[in-house]
Amino acid sequence: MRNILNISLPKEMVVDIKRGVKAGKFASTSEFMRHLIRVWNTEQLMRTVEKSRAEIAAGKGKVLRSLKDLR
Fold first, then answer.
1. By the 8 A CB rule, do 17 and 29 touch?
2. Which tens digit of pLDDT belongs to each residue from 30-54?
3. Distance CA 65, CA 52 (A)
4. How far is the C-alpha of 38 from the C-alpha of 31, rounded, in Å?
5. How far apart are CA 11 and CA 20, in angstroms?
6. Cα(17)–Cα(30) distance, rounded to whole angstroms?
7. Run of H or E residues at 20
8. What global pTM score does this model have?
């Protein structure tokens, strides 16, 4: 099931979105917004991975001996 979310954007952003859709880069305004959210989620995940790598490099990582250690 899809949910509807109404947002308010400055005119310049709306023009950019419509330009991207019209150029065929995105099928619709909704697809444009979904793409932005996917990019944001990916960036969040990369920050988490980078933080974890830094902790491991600093010797703060935890050695897992089994999947039960994840709990």
1. yes
2. 999 999 999 999 999 999 999 999 9
3. 18
4. 10
5. 14
6. 10
7. helix 11-22
8. 0.72
